[in-house]
Amino acid sequence: MSDAQHLVTLKDWSAEDIRQVVDAGIAVKRDPAKYATALAGKSAALLFQKTSTRTRCAAEVGMFQLGGQGVYLDWRVTNFGLADLADEMRVLSTYFDFLLVRLLEFEDVRTTAQAVDVPTMNGCCNRYHPLQALCDLQTIQEKFGRLEGVRLTYTGIHNNVTNSLIIAALRMGMQINVVAPEMNEAARDPELMQIAATSDNYRAFDNLREAVLESDVVYTDTWLDMEFFNDERFAQEKERRIRLFGPYQLNRQVLEGSEALVMHCLPAHRGYEIESELVDDPRSVVIEQAENRLHSQKAVLLKLADQLS
Question: How much is the pLDDT for 173?
Answer without folding.
Answer: 98
